[in-house]
Amino acid sequence: MINETAHRKMQRARSELVLDHPFFAHLALRLEMREDPTCRTAWSDGRVLAYNPLYVESLPLGKLKGMQCHEVLHLVCNHHTRRNGRDERLWNMACDYAINPVLLEAGIELPSGYLDNPAHHGLSADAIYAGLLALQEETHGGAEGGARQGEEVASEQGSPGGGAEDGEAGEESDAGETPLPEAGREDAGGNSGAEGESPSEKTTEAEGDPGMSGEVRDSPSQAAGDGGAESLRQEEQSWRAALSEALHKAREFGSLPGSLERLLDGGHQPALDWRELLQRFLYNAARNDFSWARPNRRFLHTGLYLPGLHNEELAQVAVAVDVSGSITPPELERFASELSSVLEEFDAAITVFTCDAAITRREHLSRWDLPLEFTVSGGGGTDFCPPFEHLREEGTSPACLIYFTDMECGHFPEEPEYPVLWVTANGAHTPPPFGDVLLMPPSA
């Protein structure tokens, strides 16, 4: 039987994050919550957020919210896909040292026992891991007994937050926090964890969270080995898209903590390829937002009313294509294919212009007319003004305009009120006077 008290407490913490920390809430809602008495605290692998119900009951609500943020930030940094055979316990320590300062600076309260050491601030999990491993090998002459040695490394590197020796984190209040449960301990219903598990297996799982705030485990796709490579790539791509959307929402609300902004801007955010950047541009133009007027139906059965994702659909998207002759048919085909796949997600009216020095063709399309098809038929000079002028004369203000061109033209119109994205395969172009530029790399 599921522990309803712990489950409701997890749901309440998640719902409060929606208003307190929209960035973390948006990503936490992707995870399936699951009770797991065999772990000591909690864990996530990119798909599941599992928790020991006794651990959840032991935490004040503020620290429970902090645990959920902690797990989400592991996934934002792809810690669940990047271990690559490294020692699991040391990897968890390194990842905790990397993300906990970001959470603390953002004002997020973490469970007692969290790891924090000023010597690691600003370093990546990989760099911290290398340092911890070197210290372990120097101290113990190898990696044997890594679990217990890891605790000694942590002790030498700096006390866990909430410990008596920690001058900063040691001042955290433990009011209302009870001792942590042991993994596999029987709950009120007499359950003692997964059927058939040995005490040694439970002990191993209990040792998996040296930071006492929730561990990160390998993605199921990574655990599948070479056979899961494509699945892992798709999972990482899915998280990148979700991260992009969560960032947009948090910035829109003005609620993205500076420490998190610096983390993502400092190279920890996975690099987005041009397709994902194209998707981000259109999502931003759609102005997605949370709205209490449309409750999230995924959680109504729990009695929990969370704001739904209200999508102010793209009313109109304008697409201009330079067919002056210097763009190759394969480039045009790639652009049409990728733009079509993104536009299929929106119920938008699409106005397509093909032009060189003047508009050569204009079409009004909808999602049902996709995929887009363009033909190189021009050959004259290039003028960027005609599509903008046509929209102005019509009195039309689209949600955005996407212009595919070689950028070999210096004749630009005045900057319009709507956002503009210039997509080009020409890496040596002169920057335009307005809009964003997206470089479409050569096909592999």
Main features:
Put_metallopeptidase_dom; 6-stranded mixed β-sheet; alpha/beta; 2 domains; 444 residues; vWFA_dom_sf; 13% strand; Rossmann fold; 14 helices; VWA-like_dom
Would you mind describing this structure in some detail?
- It is a single chain.
- The protein is α/β, with parallel strands linked by helices and 444 residues long.
- It has two domains: 4-242, no CATH class; 316-439, 3-Layer(aba) Sandwich (Rossmann fold).
- It contains 14 helices and twelve strands.
- It has helices at 4-20, 22-28, 53-58, 61-76, 88-105, 125-140, 146-157, 199-206, 220-223, 229-253, 258-268, 274-286, 329-343, 385-394; strands spanning 32-35, 42-44, 48-51, 215-216, 289-295, 307-310, 316-322, 349-355, 359-365, 400-404, 420-424, 436-439.
- A six-stranded mixed sheet has the order 9-8-7-10-11-12, covered by helices on one side.
- Strand 7, helix 13 and strand 8 form a beta-alpha-beta unit.
- Helix 2 packs antiparallel against helix 10 (229-253), helix 4 (61-76) packs across helix 5 (88-105) and helix 6 (125-140) crosses helix 7.
- The chain starts with a helix and ends in a 5-residue tail after the last strand.
- Residues 143-150, 163-175, 184-206, 267-272 and 288-312 have low confidence and may be disordered.
- InterPro entries: Put_metallopeptidase_dom (IPR025154), VWA-like_dom (IPR018698), vWFA_dom_sf (IPR036465).
- Residues 141-240 are annotated as: Disordered.
- Residues 317-440 form the VWA-like domain.
